Structure formats: C-alpha cells, structure tokens
Amino acid sequence: MAEPSIVQKALRSVRRHGLANTLHFVFMRLVNRAVPFKILRGVHVAQADAAFFAYPPAYTPAFLSPGALKAFADQPRSEMSRAFVEDALRHGDECYAICDGEKLASYGWYSTRPTPIDPSDLTLHFADGYVYMYKGFTDRDYRGQRLHAIGMTRALQHYLESGYQGFVSYVESTNFDSLKSCFRMGYHVFGSLYVLQIFGRYFTFASPGCDAFGFHLVSTRLRAPLSAIAPLPVPVERRRTSRTG
User: Fold this and answer.
1) Alpha carbons 218 and 224: distance in angstroms, whole number
2) Reduced to 3 DSSP states, what percent helix, strand and coil does the chain have, rounded to the nearest 5?
3) What's the rounded Cα separation, in Å, for the pair 46 and 26?
4) Nearest C-alpha neighbor of 47 from the set 141, 132, 156
5) Which of 47, 184, 215, 227 has its CA 20 to 30 Å from the CA of residue 149?
6) Residue 172 and residue 162: Cα distance in Å, rounded?
7) Please, where are the H alpha helices in the chain?
8) CA 2: distance to chain centroid?
9) 40 CB neighbour count, 10 Å cutoff
10) Dist CA 233 CA 53 (whole Å)
C-alpha cells in the first residue's frame, strides 16, 4: 500500500483534530527544526466524576505498597524502572494502580513535592494544597476500558477527602489525544508553560493563568528560576469544560 502523501496526512489531521490544532502542530514542527521548543498545557481538576468510580469486578484498585512496586518494576512491560520507583518512593510519591490478579493493568503516580519532568534537569513546582499527577500508564492488553480514568478519579477522591484541593498536571500542546482524554475526565486548561532551549540552557515563560497554581519550572542546573522570555505566537488555547489513557 502506498504511503499517504503530505496532503492526505494533513487532511486526515484536520478531520481528526481540527484546522487550528493542525496548524499549531505544523507551527511547532517548523520551530523545532531551528531550536528545541515545547508548550506544556497546565491542567487542573478539583471534582471527582462519579461516572468513573466503577471498575470491572475482577480487578483490584489500590495504592501499591513499596514491595509491590519494586516487584512490578522488574517487569519490562510496566514501563517503570527500579531506580525510578526507589527515587519516587524516597520522595514520598504514591502510585495508584488497577491490577488484574497479579498483572499490573494501569497506574498513575502522584506527588506533593516539586517533581522532575522531561527533560530531567527541569523541575515542576506547584502550589501547596495540590497534587501533581504524572506518568499515567495502561498496559496495551487493557486499553479501551477507561482504566486510567477510573484509577485517576478514585485517587482524586482519596486526595480530596485528605484535604487537598485537586490535581494539577501538564500535557504537551501537540498531544491532542491526551488533551481530549483530560477533558473527558474533567480537567480544564488553566495556562501554559513555554520551554525554549538555546545553547544547552533552558528558558521558560509561564502564562498568567499559571500564577494561581504556582505552576512554574526551575532548572536543576541553576540556583534560581530560569529567565523569562516572551512566548512565541501560538494559537489561542481553548478552554473547555467537561472532565491523561
């Protein structure tokens, strides 16, 4: 079968993601040919959607113990190394998972401290009272069952009952499928982080909406927050209300 042409790919993208998102994707690809540049959409959810509480009766949802996490870390399909697990646990992070017997079907990690992101020499900071949700994963044999949404919602309810104000997270601006998944789970976009790398040094800018959540990046190479730069022009982000798969 012949490889789709550029025009065919573009039309397919427009049908799936819309014209504005397709143009944004093209813009980001062009910029990244010159310099590494990312836009991270900050997202927040403060209410657990009851539609995602129920789980398949054969499965077990729970926060995993350190022993269980280290055992799962030895399994290549889990996509988390023993070094990652030990570091996360050492900093007090927790993992809420859904298991099918002895199999790890889905999980998400939760942190209340400044947390390294990708690239690892950048650390995400956020306001006290919020929980940072990261590294959501569903095994390929269990996808399509909304397990990520179920696990995240049940974890959110736990943290809300413990006195936290909700979850914060981020999604890269070109990851349209993940953004749609976030909206279905009740997340909304509150702002954006712009990340530019020049000669090995990172420069960031946080949009005004990030202020209320203390959402900003700090480089581990420096002792102080990175220098702010004016963001490159990007399409205006759409705020959608409804509810990472």
Assistant:
1) 7
2) 35, 30, 35
3) 33
4) 156
5) 215
6) 29
7) 6-17, 19-34, 66-73, 82-90, 147-161, 176-184
8) 35
9) 24
10) 40
